[in-house]
Specification:
With 201 residues, this protein is mostly helical. It has ten helices and no strands. It is flat. 27% of the residues are buried.
C-alpha cells in the first residue's frame, strides 16, 4: 500500500467532479480509474482507519476491502462528495472486521444477547438512508449526523460508535438524542415544504 499523504481527501483539491467521473468509469469496469481513486484517497482513509484501529493488518485488510467494494458497488454512488461515500464504506468494513475478531475471541460457551426490537423510527432510518429521510439527515449538523448514521443506520452499539468516531460514549448518547430531535424537526420542515397546505381541511 502506498504511504499515507495526510488526513484530508486529496481529491478535494482536484475537484469533486473528477471523483464522480472516476466512479462512473469504475462502474463501467475501468480498472485504471479505480487505481487513480486509490492513489487519491487511500492515504487519508488509511490515516483515519489507523486512528480507530491499532492493528495495522486489520487496517490493511479493511482498506483493501474498501476498494474491492468500490469496484463492485460504484454504480450505487448517488452523486455528492465521493470522500464521504468512501469513508462510509471503510467505516462499515472496519466495524465488520472488529465484530468478526470479537466473535473469534469470544468463548464458545458465551451466548450473545438478543438485540432489542428496533423502534419504528429506527426501521424507517435503516431502510431509507436516502430519499426523504436522507434529505432530512443532510439538514442536521455533521457531528450529529455521523452519530445517527453510526448508531441507527449502521446499527452500532454506543461503545462501537464511540470507538469508530473517536469520541466518548457519553458524547455519543448526548449527540444521538440531539440528532433525533433535529431529525424530527427536519422531517417536519420537509413535510411542510412539500405539502404547505397539508394541514388545512
Amino acid at each position: 500500500m502506498r504511504p499515507a499523504r495526510g488526513d484530508l481527501p486529496t481529491g478535494e483539491d482536484r475537484g469533486e467532479r473528477d471523483d464522480a467521473a472516476l466512479l462512473r468509469a469504475v462502474a463501467r469496469g475501468d480498472a485504471d480509474a479505480l487505481a487513480v481513486l486509490y492513489d487519491r484517497h487511500a492515504g487519508w482513509l488509511h490515516a483515519r482507519l489507523t486512528r480507530r484501529c491499532a492493528d495495522p493488518e486489520t487496517v490493511r485488510e479493511v482498506l483493501q476491502d474498501t476498494f474491492v467494494t468500490v469496484w463492485r458497488s460504484a454504480r450505487s454512488h448517488r452523486g455528492g462528495e465521493a470522500g464521504g461515500w468512501l469513508w462510509v464504506i471503510a467505516a462499515r468494513r472496519l466495524v465488520d472486521a472488529q465484530r468478526a475478531r470479537a466473535r473469534a475471541d469470544r468463548p464458545l460457551r458465551e451466548e450473545p444477547a438478543p438485540d432489542p426490537a428496533p423502534s419504528a423510527e429506527e426501521r424507517v432510518l435503516a431502510g431509507l438512508e436516502y430519499g426523504e429521510v436522507g434529505a432530512a439527515l443532510d439538514r442536521i449538523s455533521p457531528e450529529l449526523r455521523e452519530v445517527l448514521r453510526a448508531t441507527v443506520i449502521d446499527g452500532l452499539t454506543t461503545r462501537e460508535a464511540a470507538r469508530l468516531l473517536g469520541i466518548p460514549e457519553g458524547t455519543v448518547k448526548t449527540r444521538a438524542l440531539r440528532a433525533r430531535r433535529e431529525l424530527r424537526a427536519a422531517l417536519a420542515q420537509l413535510a411542510s415544504d412539500t405539502h404547505p397546505l397539508g394541514g388545512m381541511a
